[in-house]
Write a structure and sequence with these properties.
Largest sheet: 6 strands, antiparallel
Number of domains: 4
Order of helices and strands: EEEEEEEEEHEHEHEEEHEHHEEHHEHHEE
Radius of gyration: 23 Å
Number of strands: 20
CATH topology of the largest domain: Aminopeptidase
Structural class: alpha+beta
CATH class of the largest domain: Alpha Beta
Oligomer: single chain
CATH architecture of the largest domain: 3-Layer(aba) Sandwich
């Protein structure tokens, strides 16, 4: 089996990180440095309130943010106004603040609330989990920084965009909630505040009477569903509705699903519900991709994608004066993203912004003037 490869694409306002095993995308992260996920950050925090019904305390963090410290992670016995060091163990998600765990301090902790250190970025987390993996990036400053942490042997600076067409296509797929299945059919993912629902559509197979074909399609669809859950950092309660199988026959799929579930330490197979839905539970850790990218993609997501395409255009047409035509909402989102437009200017030259209220979402484009 080929050694895993970490691919890091750096563009204005965004870092995209992929873990590849051969031709398979095995992990995906989208990071926006102006709004870091915060996992692993170490804070000096103050107890703002006790929540007996929840079994923990709320902590006031820097920037006016509030996190939750369970009693089992060091909240027990702490009262309002207490100071402590705490690390983020679960990123903010679903409209809720981060979850924390108390960390010992060699000396007394006092205010003000402040950030002591940032947790590792995705590329470094993946490098620690995959010590044999090389990291390929297309950004010189990032390559130099990573070499200072991991050494020169593991970091390769690419003169071409780090993401090839296949990776670009995979990440584009992750920005939507429908996933086509090989041989027909599709998965549709429906995240809600309470749970994630996944529907399997059998496509052309649904009209046939071949029970073996239905079983094979559902087994393949379930395997892809687990992969999509992992790639998108989806978690909490998960229900999967299979296609075209009687409830009694759906139970036949559970033994084959068990080893796939076991490969994801955060995932548990709970069984089959009375309605014949496969029930899963996944521990929440990272912010789900759809909360970063938006569903549908947010104006900022579309604007940053346009800047990526603009860098490619600048490479093809060195010295050309470039302009970005996009809706006012997209341009406003870029203006509010610290450093994104400045980074583009530094790497590709000045970019004129051309608002077009009639520009449809997804049709933003950088062009030569």
């Amino acid at each position: 089996m080929a050694a895993p490869l970490i691919v890091l694409s750096v563009s204005p306002g965004e870092r995209r990180v992929a873990l590849r095993r051969g031709d398979t995308l095995d992990a995906a992260f989208v990071e926006r440095p102006h709004r870091p996920e915060g996992l692993g950050d170490l804070h000096v925090a103050r107890v703002a309130a006790r929540a007996p019904a929840m079994g923990g305390v709320f902590l006031a963090l820097t920037g006016g943010e509030t996190g939750f410290l369970p009693d089992s992670e060091g909240g027990k016995g702490r009262g309002e106004g207490d100071w402590l060091r705490a690390a983020v163990t679960r990123a903010a998600q679903g409209g809720k603040g981060p979850r924390l765990a108390a960390r010992p301090s060699p000396e007394a902790v006092t205010g003000p609330v402040r950030l002591l250190s940032r947790g590792p970025e995705a590329a470094l987390r993946l490098a620690a989990q995959n010590p044999e993996a090389m990291i390929v990036t297309d950004h010189a400053a990032t390559a130099a920084r990573l070499r200072g942490v991991l050494g020169t042997a593991r970091i390769e600076l690419s003169a071409r965009p780090a993401f090839d067409d296949a990776l670009e296509e995979e990440f584009e797929l992750l920005s939507g909630m429908a996933v086509a299945l090989p041989g027909g059919g599709r998965l549709t993912l429906h995240p809600t505040p309470a749970l994630l629902a996944i529907d399997i559509d059998a496509g052309a197979v649904s009209g046939g009477r071949d029970a073996t074909a239905h079983k094979a399609l559902n087994a393949a669809a379930l395997a892809e569903a687990l992969r999509q859950i992992r790639l998108r950092h989806l978690a909490g309660a998960i229900l999967v509705d299979m296609a075209g199988m009687a409830i009694a026959r759906r139970r036949e799929l559970l033994p084959g699903l068990a080893p796939l579930v076991a490969a994801d330490p955060a995932l548990k197979l709970m069984g089959l519900t009375g309605l014949g839905l496969i029930e899963l539970q996944r521990r929440r850790v990272h912010t789900p991709l759809h909360e970063i990218l938006g569903d549908p993609p947010s104006p900022l997501t579309r604007g940053l994608a346009a800047l990526r395409r603009g860098l490619a255009e600048a490479t093809r047409r060195p010295g050309a004066r470039l302009a970005l035509t996009a809706s006012p909402a997209v341009l406003a989102a870029l203006a509010d993203c610290p450093g994104a437009l400045d980074d583009f200017t530094e790497r590709a030259g000045a970019l004129a912004l051309r608002p077009d209220p009639l520009c449809p979402p997804g049709q933003e484009h950088v062009h030569a003037e």
